[in-house]
Amino acid sequence: MLRISLLELVMKGIPEGLISIFGIFALSKTKFDWKKFLYLSLSLIVLTYLFRFLPVGYCIHILLSIMSMILISIIVLQIHFLTAIKTSFLIIIIILFLEGVTLCVLNCIFLNDKVCQIMMNPLMKSLAGIPSTIIFGAIMTIIYVNYRKKIIQN
Fold first, then answer.
1. Longest C-alpha distance within the chain, in Å?
2. Which of 22, 47, 95, 146 shows the smallest number of beta carbons within 10 Å?
């Protein structure tokens, strides 16, 4: 079981869930709607949090989160299933890449034992993840702004 603390949910899970749904809007070139955004974000955050309580391995909860993202994108946003699959996988790949970079940077700055201590402490782990969440948000914002500029120009 891969439980996360309430602190990790607030500092990492909620921002990442909001940015992920914003990313679906941006990558699928769907018109932004606040009601749908908030509904989808809340759904994804709650589902992802609940998946962490299932007695499954690390990769399984990620797959369940991807499937949830795909299904809620198709059902609520009415986007094509291939677009939903592509955007969901791209978002997860970006998140995993940025978290991997964060871990590599931490390994370069600290010794491996110190990184293990950081990852065992919910507060330190959440703080260490903030840069990757900010970069993830910046990437999705740039994609969305570029999409909006193209619409305005046409």
1. 54
2. 146
